[in-house]
């Protein structure tokens, strides 16, 4: 089973689509886009995703992608 990375639909609209596209292209994780992840303050302030239950923040799409993969590797999900 692949590790799961979740996104809030509102955060995707604000720049997360690039991260999702790359994750899906790489095929190393399952990507799920939800209506809301109950992280509204975080969602309004920055790009973020939830990787296997851990909230990951990024200053840019590339930063978020790097941090997602780093977390998943450090926690032995990849």
Number of helices: 3
How many domains in all? 1
Count all strands and give the number: 4
Report strand %.
Answer: 25-35%
Structural Rg: 11 Å
| Topology pattern, helix = H, strand = E | EHEHEEH
Largest sheet: 4 strands, mixed
Task: Using the alpha-carbon principal axes, give the shape.
Answer: globular
Average pLDDT value?
94
What separation lies between the terminal Cα atoms? 11 Å
Question: Spans of 5+ residues with little confidence (pLDDT < 50)?
Answer: none
* Quaternary assembly: single chain
Pfam family, one: DUF1450
Label this structure with key terms.
alpha+beta; 4-stranded mixed beta sheet; 78 residues; globular; DUF1450; 3 helices; 26% strand
């Amino acid at each position: 089973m692949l590790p799961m990375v979740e996104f809030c639909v509102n955060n995707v609209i604000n720049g997360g689509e690039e991260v999702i596209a790359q994750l899906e292209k790489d095929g190393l994780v399952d990507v799920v886009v939800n209506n809301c992840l109950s992280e509204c303050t975080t969602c309004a302030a920055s790009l973020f995703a939830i990787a296997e239950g851990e909230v990951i923040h990024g200053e840019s799409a590339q930063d978020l992608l790097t941090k997602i993969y780093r977390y998943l590797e450090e926690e032995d999900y990849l």
